[in-house]
Amino acid sequence: MSTDLIAIAVAEIKELAVIEPKQASKRFEIIANTMSDEQLGEVIEQIDIVTLTQMNSQHDLSFPSIISELMTPEKIRDIVCQQPLYWEEKIKNNAEELKQHTFDFLTYLIRTQDNEEKQAEILECIAEDPAGLFYLSIPFIEIYRGEILEYENYWEDKLYEDEEHLEEAESYTERQLTEDAHNIGYDDPKSLLALIRQLTPGVESAIKALIRNEKSGWEGIISKFATELVMQAKEKNQVEDEFAEVDDMFSFLD
Predict the structure, then answer these.
(1) Stretches in the chain below the pLDDT threshold 70
(2) 195-228 as b/e: b if 16+ CB within 10 A
(3) Please, which domain of life does this record's source organism belong to (predicted)?
């Protein structure tokens, strides 16, 4: 019976997502009240990545979602790498908009997790994919280029130090106290960057190296990264489509 319920839920959400992804997301939240986390996890596994990307992109990013909480780090990575195909033109063509949008989406996917272990797994999983690392870097390009220096006594020491002089990741308590002292909330990219440094210093180093390897200004780097993200997302879709065609060719063997 539970298998039938899962199949029905998957079919309903997929059908609704074709018409209105936002309504599909809301419907999932309603279904969540009638199923266990294990059943909901199975529903998510059976929904294709395009539908999941559309649903998460249409969700109000200022509120947590049961979908993001139950997705595996691998699913979240795939969504991050797929999402550039759904950027609106006004976002793609405006560095400020793109910086804010990628920050909001990452905050929604990472901050809503109920424990730091999963947050770290998500960050490491995203960073392992070249496109994921590009995406992770966009909110922090302006910071690492040194073109905006705020709270100089603290942030300049912590964010612009030479690679060989990197300090150990700060503890959660120390990070929280510092953010409170400088009135830095979750809506500030510096807060997310501090979280990344604390949980996954290797990911933070990879972000820094990627950005500092570029020679142009921050707006030019964002434009380059955005173009690369869209191109890689299209390439991944083409590979998936080729596999789908091969599967169709041999469907008579099933």
Answers:
(1) 1, 146-186, 239-254
(2) bbbbbbeebbebbbebbeebeeebbebbbebbee
(3) Bacteria
